[in-house]
């Protein structure tokens, strides 16, 4: 079996859930997601594959969106011992705007159904999922480990950004940026979640949080490339509320939020920044049988 044959690993996981194919099908797969662009095209394909197999052959429990997302996560990440999380699988499987809590008892909260003005810019530079993601994750975990050794009760999910100076003395110099990035990114996430819970969103504030997050990824974690930087800068100059790289980095795509009256201006600016293609996108309601 190929090292990353997700179709085969999906079959292995599905068997553990009582889904055992006993006849063949001729299957046609079509799609328009850009490949190796940081927009989770592989997860989307595997979610569709798993949903088809569950519909065709059943399972030993109720088939829900949560079950489909969980199986996809196990097939893509756990079966191959890869560094990815479960954001892609749950976002695609469940749909909407989610806050995903990745603690041991994984949970999620649907906090919105849509975001207006979303624009995706594809750089044309292939992203580097395994190497980039694995390296940054390992460094962040190592930095947290240094803090935990000196502070046994430390919990990254309870730590505040203002507490960085309290802990930095326990971290080697080369690990400090990754610890700060972990605190900063979690702080940004909580602020965004609180805003998304409101009935009337302040999109300028959401955009500012996106920009803060992108700067962490660009200046601290260093996962951008020149064409991505140019696309981001152009989108902001054209009036986008916020712009950030998406995916694991080293290439891939950006996502921007633009005011309704500036969407085309932002699209044109991203193209001028070197984008291979630019799309207006919508928040999807999740994987489903049509």
TrEMBL record:
InterPro entries associated with the record: GHMP_kinase_C_dom, GHMP_kinase_C_sf, GHMP_kinase_N_dom, Ribosomal_Su5_D2-typ_SF, Ribsml_uS5_D2-typ_fold_subgr
Keyword list, A-Z: ATP-binding, Kinase, Nucleotide-binding, Transferase
GO BP term, pick one: galactose metabolic process
Keyword Transferase recorded: yes
Domain GHMP kinase N-terminal: start-end pairs: 10-96
Domain GHMP kinase C-terminal: from-to ranges: 201-275
Pfam families from the UniProt entry: GHMP_kinases_C (PF08544), GHMP_kinases_N (PF00288)
GO cellular component annotations of the record: cytosol
Cell cycle listed as a keyword: no
SUPFAM superfamilies given in the database record: GHMP Kinase, C-terminal domain (SSF55060), Ribosomal protein S5 domain 2-like (SSF54211)
GO MF, one annotated term: ATP binding
UniProt superkingdom: Bacteria
Family listed: Belongs to the GHMP kinase family. GalK subfamily.
Name the UniProt record assigns to this protein: Galactokinase
């Amino acid at each position: 079996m190929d090292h990353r044959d997700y179709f085969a690993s999906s079959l292995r996981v599905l068997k553990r859930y009582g889904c055992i194919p006993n006849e063949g099908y001729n299957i046609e797969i079509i799609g328009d997601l850009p490949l190796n662009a940081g927009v989770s095209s592989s997860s989307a394909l595997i979610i569709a594959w798993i949903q088809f197999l569950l519909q065709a052959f059943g399972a030993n429990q109720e088939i829900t969106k949560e079950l489909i997302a969980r199986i996809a996560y196990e097939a893509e990440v756990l079966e191959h011992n890869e560094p990815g999380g479960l954001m892609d699988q749950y976002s695609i499987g469940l749909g909407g705007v989610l806050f995903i809590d990745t603690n041991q008892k994984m949970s999620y909260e649907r906090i919105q159904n849509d975001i207006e003005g979303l624009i995706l810019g594809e750089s044309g530079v292939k992203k580097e999922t395994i190497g980039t993601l694995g390296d940054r994750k390992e460094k962040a975990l190592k930095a947290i480990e240094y803090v935990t050794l000196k502070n046994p009760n430390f919990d990254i999910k309870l730590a505040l950004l203002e507490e960085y100076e309290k802990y930095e003395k326990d971290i080697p110099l080369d690990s400090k940026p990754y610890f700060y990035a972990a605190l900063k990114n979690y702080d940004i996430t909580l602020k965004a979640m609180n805003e998304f819970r409101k009935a009337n969103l302040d999109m300028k504030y959401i955009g500012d949080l996106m920009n803060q997050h992108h700067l962490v990824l660009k200046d601290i974690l260093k996962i951008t490339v020149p064409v991505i930087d140019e696309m981001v800068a152009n989108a902001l100059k054209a009036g986008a509320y916020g712009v950030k790289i998406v995916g694991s980095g080293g290439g891939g795509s950006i996502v921007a939020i633009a005011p309704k009256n500036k969407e085309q201006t932002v699209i044109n600016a991203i193209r001028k920044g070197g984008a291979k293609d630019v799309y207006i996108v919508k928040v999807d309601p999740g994987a489903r049988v049509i």
